[in-house]
From TrEMBL, chains A, B:
Catalyzes two activities which are involved in the cyclic version of arginine biosynthesis: the synthesis of N-acetylglutamate from glutamate and acetyl-CoA as the acetyl donor, and of ornithine by transacetylation between N(2)-acetylornithine and glutamate. NCBIfam families: ArgJ (TIGR00120), PRK05388.1 (NF003802). CDD domains: OAT. It catalyses: N(2)-acetyl-L-ornithine + L-glutamate = N-acetyl-L-glutamate + L-ornithine; L-glutamate + acetyl-CoA = N-acetyl-L-glutamate + CoA + H(+). It is found in: Cytoplasm. The gene is argJ. Heterotetramer of two alpha and two beta chains. It comes from the Bacteria. This is Arginine biosynthesis bifunctional protein ArgJ. It comes from Williamsia herbipolensis. The active site is at residue 198.
């Protein structure tokens, strides 16, 4: 991985790069009256774009639409709503997404930028199964195009408008020393969790990068960041990560440097998503080393990170390494149970498959817990970010339909 | 599946068949002083036996021992302890298991039945990672052989002594009209959950059945009962299911009738395990129909049964069918999202991938919830038993090392 040559800041988002405007507003989609509609607009001169989408076979209408749109490798705008996922809504729901893209294209054309619906990606998040209130959404689209602002405030407004159970907006900007920039915003509380907890991410850049290079940088970055954030093993019907380039800096970046900047932006947003996960009281890194391959390491780390008994033990600050070892033993990879070493926060708690003296006294009372599992059969390694399984998680996901 | 020709009762256990004695006692392994040692003894004349064990690659010492013993297809006795899993304890822990089997063999030989350690299976359950207090366990073994009783009380004492977080002992007996019997006991609170929640099952019969037929009946029964009980997706280091035949009825059963009786005993014990699962407030059956194959149906049902968002919604009595559909979409099988029908307690809530009117008003406030998912692409079907994800589950698994 190329080292990042630049700085990462969190108080700037999608409008940090040149050539982007954004806005956020309350269109009345949410009954609460909170902001629920966002727009990210690319002023050009380039309009290259790439996207990655949920692997769930049940895909929401906006995902089906945006996947089609992205086959062109080109985007002029992204419209995002909270307050409804528009998932499992059938052909009528797909018609609503199409109508939303048409409305954005029409409003942008009226505003002076000739735009087609095929240049507009749509993202939605909220409860699965209900139709969107189009009587609120379509007038909102007309209004939000008028509200679009350059500068940083438009990006911040957009980051607020996509929040659901998020407690804070999530933004990031990377300023590369060569003069080009990457910006981004994300929502999601609980990684890849259906309904309310969908993950939506929009990344922007003013570097001049063609669609194929955007696609490869985005796939490489998401595979090592969002794909390795695993709060509850669920994967939403609506998860979407988009990357848009305006080329407005007029600088063609080194490919490795660009990939490193996109990775840094995604990595920082993934960190922010973990920290704000539904009901989490612990931020947990599960690192697996010594696997036969990096893929094996991911598999083992994910198995540990998803284990309810590990997650409840860590909620209780209990250094219960036996549950970690038992979870490792269920991972579908080749391993030698008698060679495994487990470490909590830098203290070895189990070596060669047996506990070590003092293991039950390791202090896990802090917010951050690092679990390291050395399989000692190879050199593959990977880290998964996760959280604990707390009363708050149960409360948030049982107390109301979400 | 052959229909069961006989009766199933729950107040009798491993001593219901002829030719078995059992006992349970407090040997001082548990700090609480509660019963923690059990013995099941086969008086013969036959000693055929079979076993199935955890699929976890991290196997406790007693599992490693009992797997070796079972290669002979013969067992004279099973000794079981709660209060310690003897898992992840290395060669010394294996030595403890071996010493336990030797002590049982020696005590039985002194009592008048010449027995070798190779005829004694060992099962342990409790916290992973600690050595067993052999100074308590070995004298206990000598004492329990003296305590062995025929009749039903010995079986009931044994069923009590293997309990950990179980709130009730679990026993079953099947009396076949042809004159032979099957009996059984189980412990486990939370299916296949490491440490405290290990599942241990001993099934006995007085039917004359050779080891190969025992093995095939046991594997067929466990595949459709214990393997389809999935409380939290975890699989213990110690899970063990044993089947012993005394042949004392002197009746050779019809193979199908015997398989049906073993299935009925396992199915009833699985039902009892689900009802007593840690922190559960709901008993949930997830049935998948219309899959390409029964295996696909199991995969989909298991994916739904393990989904934390589905389990928390059902804890909240929330008919959130969108979460079920999203979970189905993550199952690694071929399916058509637009053909799926979902039913809660007999009410269709989603048809062809869309919600139906009134779906959000279905009453799930009762203890039993039946979720049926029709994939409509084939004729495969399967049912998984599970429970909700409750505050009680989090409490029980976080509040102390277990």
């Amino acid at each position: 991985m190329h080292t990042l040559d630049g700085s990462v800041v969190r108080d700037q988002g999608v409008t940090a790069p040149l050539g982007f405007r954004a806005a956020g507003m309350a269109a009345g989609i949410k009954a609460s009256g909170r902001p629920d509609l966002a727009l990210v607009f690319n002023e050009g001169p380039d309009y290259t774009a790439a996207g990655v989408f949920t692997r769930n076979k049940v895909k929401a209408a906006p995902v089906q639409w945006s996947q089609q749109v992205l086959t062109t490798g080109r985007l002029r705008a992204v419209v995002l709503n909270s307050g409804g996922a528009n998932a499992c809504t059938g052909p009528d729901g797909f018609g609503d997404t199409h109508a939303t893209a048409e409305a954005v294209a029409s409003a942008l054309s009226n505003w002076g930028t000739e735009t087609g619906a095929i240049e507009v990606a749509v993202c939605s998040t909220g409860l699965i199964g209900d139709r969107l209130p189009m009587d609120k959404l379509l007038p909102g689209v007309t209004a939000i195009v008028r509200d679009m602002a350059g500068g940083l405030s438009g990006g911040t407004d957009a980051a607020h408008a996509i929040m659901t159970t998020d407690t804070v907006p999530k933004q990031v900007a990377v300023h590369h020393t060569a003069g080009w920039n990457v910006g981004g915003m994300a929502k999601g509380a609980g990684m890849l969790a259906p309904s309310l907890a969908t993950m939506l991410v929009v990344i922007t850049t003013d570097a001049k990068v063609d669609a194929a290079a955007l696609d490869s940088a985005l796939r490489a970055a998401t595979a090592r960041t969002f794909d390795r954030l695993d709060v509850d093993g669920s994967c939403s019907t609506n998860d979407t990560v988009l990357l848009l380039s305006s080329g407005a800096s007029d600088i063609e970046p080194d490919a490795d440097a660009f990939a490193a900047a996109v990775f840094a932006a995604c990595d920082d947003l993934a960190e922010q998503l973990m920290a704000d996960a539904e009901g989490a009281t612990k931020r947990i890194l599960v690192t697996v080393t010594g696997a036969h391959s990096d893929d094996d390491a991911v598999t083992v780390a994910r198995t540990v990170a998803r284990d309810s008994l590990v997650k409840t033990a860590l909620f209780g600050s209990d250094p219960n390494w036996g549950r970690v070892l038992a979870a490792v033993g269920m991972a579908p990879v080749e391993l030698d149970p008698d060679a495994i070493t487990i470490d909590f926060n830098g203290h070895v708690v189990s070596r060669n498959g047996c506990g070590v003296a003092g293991a039950r006294e390791v202090d896990l009372s802090g917010t951050d817990i690092v679990v390291t599992v050395d399989l000692a059969v190879g050199s593959g390694r990977a880290t998964i970010r996760t959280t604990d399984l707390s009363h708050g998680y149960v409360e948030e996901n049982s107390a109301y339909s979400s």
